[in-house]
């Protein structure tokens, strides 16, 4: 199977591999896994006070397409607000890397990793600000 | 069983005369498989017309497929849930419990480190732990499917088991890499 140059470039030189402190307030961590192939992906974003993503790191155990997809999204989310990051669709990832049809689930995994990281970040910040349903009792 | 009465519609459990459950008698499966294999072997039809030979090939293929499905716990569970009309969502459910995924990530790191250090003893420890946790998942599956008939909960266990199978493949690949 012929892989695209962009995919091979991300696979051979993955960007932003690493970890951040998952307990830090400004860090959102997304953990996702694809049962179909057993791939596991961790994506972390560091969000500034203005809501803009300053940094992103990933760690992926999986095939080349999964690694390239996560490497690509760490580049894409930087400089975006968290809500803009949520607009990234798996089809854009698949198109950019020219993923073959059998590897589309890798791009879905990357999209879901962004969503999970943003949700984790938002959870951390909403936990104190707005918990209308449970008032005082379940803060933090 | 007579060849003439071979039923292509029956499910894999019926084919081997087994009750439809996750826990099965493996010895009985093996025994029934050998008996059926003898019965449906395509060589027996070598002297017959083409149509008969094709049918014989289909029978043998079905028996093999059914056997391979039932002898492997993951494939057996998947098949059982499909008989109950449950979608395991292996293709699109990426949100496994975070602690489970974190543990998977740590396993994979440990396997990769052991491989780089060519540390066979470390791999032995990982494999023993993997087997232990896989057996535990399988007994929980038996409980959810056979006793509680809670197929939705079973589907999540099947997805977890798929990650364990992948981990086993990674460990075997690491052993191979060390040996070579």
**Most extensive interface, chain pair and sizes:** A-B, 19 and 27 residues
**Large-scale geometry of chain A:** globular
Average pLDDT level of chain A: 89
Name of the CATH architecture of the largest domain in chain B:
Up-down Bundle
- The CATH homologous superfamily name of the largest domain in chain B equals HscB, C-terminal domain
Please outline the major beta sheet of chain A.
3 strands, antiparallel
Shape of chain B: globular
Low-pLDDT residue spans of chain B: none
Task: Characterize the structure shown.
Chain A is built from 5 helices and 3 strands; from the N terminus they run αβββαααα. By secondary structure, chain A is an alpha+beta fold. Chain A has a 3-stranded antiparallel sheet with strand order 1-2-3. In chain A, α2 crosses α5. The C terminus of chain A is likely disordered. With 180 residues, chain B is mainly alpha-helical. Chain B has 2 domains: 69 residues, Orthogonal Bundle (Helix Hairpins); 82 residues, Up-down Bundle (Monooxygenase). Chain B is built from 7 helices and no strands.
């Amino acid at each position: 199977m012929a892989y695209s140059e962009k995919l091979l470039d991300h696979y051979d030189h993955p960007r932003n591999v690493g970890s951040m402190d998952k307990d830090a307030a400004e860090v959102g961590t997304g953990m996702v896994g694809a049962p179909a192939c057993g791939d596991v992906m961790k994506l972390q974003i560091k969000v500034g006070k203005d809501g803009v993503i300053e940094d992103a790191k990933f760690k992926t155990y999986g095939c080349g397409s999964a690694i390239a997809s996560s490497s690509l999204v760490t580049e894409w989310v930087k400089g975006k607000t968290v809500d803009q990051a949520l607009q990234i669709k798996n089809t854009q990832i698949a198109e950019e890397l020219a993923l073959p049809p059998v590897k589309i689930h890798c791009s879905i995994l990357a999209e879901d990793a962004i969503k999970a990281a943003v949700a984790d970040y938002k959870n951390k910040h909403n936990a104190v600000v707005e918990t209308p349903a449970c008032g005082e009792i379940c803060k933090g | 069983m007579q060849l003439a009465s071979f039923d292509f519609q029956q499910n894999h459990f019926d084919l081997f005369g087994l009750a439809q459950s996750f826990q099965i008698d493996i010895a009985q499966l093996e025994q029934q498989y050998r008996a059926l294999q003898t019965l449906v072997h395509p060589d027996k039809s070598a002297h017959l017309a083409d149509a008969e030979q094709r049918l014989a090939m289909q029978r043998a293929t079905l028996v093999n497929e059914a056997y391979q499905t039932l002898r492997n716990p993951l494939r057996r569970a998947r098949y059982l849930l499909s008989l109950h009309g449950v979608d395991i969502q292996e293709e699109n459910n990426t949100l496994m419990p975070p602690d489970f995924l974190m543990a998977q990530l740590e396993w994979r790191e440990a396997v990769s480190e052991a491989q780089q250090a060519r540390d066979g003893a470390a791999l032995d420890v990982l494999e023993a732990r993997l087997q232990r946790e896989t057996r535990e998942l399988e007994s929980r599956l038996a409980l959810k499917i056979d006793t509680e008939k809670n197929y939705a909960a079973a589907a999540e266990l099947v997805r977890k088991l798929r990650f364990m199978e992948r981990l086993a493949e990674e460990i075997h690949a690491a052993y191979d890499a060390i040996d070579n």
